Prior knowledge:
- Helices cover 11% and strands 37% of the residues.
- It is mostly beta strands.
- Residues 100-390 form the SMP-30/Gluconolactonase/LRE-like region domain.
Amino acid sequence: MVTSLRNRLVRRSVLKGLSGLSAGLLLARTGEQARAAEREAASMTPPPDVTTQPPRQWGPNAPPSYAPDPDVVVIDRSFRDLVSGNATIHRVWDQGAWIEGPAWSAEGRYLLFSDTVTSRQYRYLWETGEVTLFRPESYHTNGSTFDYLGRQISCEHFLRRVVRWEHDGSVHVVADHFENKPLSSPNDVIAHPDGSIWFTDPGYGDSVAEGHADAAGGEANPDGRIRWRVGEELIGAVGGMHKQPDHTFRVDPSGRIDVVLTQEQLPNPNGLCFSPDFSRLYVISSGRQSGAGGHDGDLSVHAFDLHRQELPLSNPRLLTNMRFEGVQMIPDGLKADIYGNLWCGVGGPLGLCGVFVFNPEGHLIGRIRLPHGVSNLTFGGPKRDWLFMCAGESLYRLQVNTQGAGPA
């Protein structure tokens, strides 16, 4: 009896020990499985993007890009059809100060762009990816385009004019005055198939950095403190000395210049583009520039109906107020693709700035995040299916599943 009881107690003790050992082994196995799962999850974690610290690396020494690119953000399903899951953003050049005005030359197979601060124009060569100096003095050129005959058209801040470079190398002044007053600082320009040239003329180039300020008493130098003649021997000899009210202009093939939007209708006009069928004109109203004085725009994109051979524009309306996640974004340049979507360069906080893409109804469908606000952009490449983006000192590119609507 005693022996049997003792045997039962020993057996129970052994079973309890085995049970504890099994539980320990089970816990150990579970812990190892959890750690393995954590390691697997870590290996699948998306790479750092521009919202992380440290920020995403760029340039030739950066690690390989991940696909799909975490900084190409799909908001609406329709945007997924416009971008490829294998395409990634690349920085192709970073030697500028503030680059602007990208335009694709179909004949030359190069991308033209400007540095408004250093007053130079560059070109990105398609075949080699090399960036070369194109014009060592561009008179602080901002926006540029190519017309339907392949001629370069540029807005020169310093000389306050719009020029066209002819095929023989000569330069033709498209516009430098309106109502016997010099222009302010032509900003962006587009070409129409009918031979007309459309451009915006705000006061953003009335600054020391990107052109020259007004003489004393002008809107950009009201109290005369800016030494507007300092640093450039041509200041005062050419170009305007006082800005005039903001205008958006159309120059017809004969050279006649017409106002299509006044300052009251759209203050601080900036980027502009046509819809693919030329039935609409889109114009951005920007805010007051730092140190420029003057008045405010509404930081929005506006749409107008365009009727061939008929001015003024009709049916003015707000396309988008450019507010995103409670933040007022800063629109700058924009282009339309063949489906009528608008690709708009925007400034704003890190993680939000870059490119916003809107459908023709003005709904935001996608974003491209970059570490700097985008001043302007265009579609290029032989098939016009590469998006080139000017952002601060750098030029970026991304292949897309659409094509640009215009010639440049």
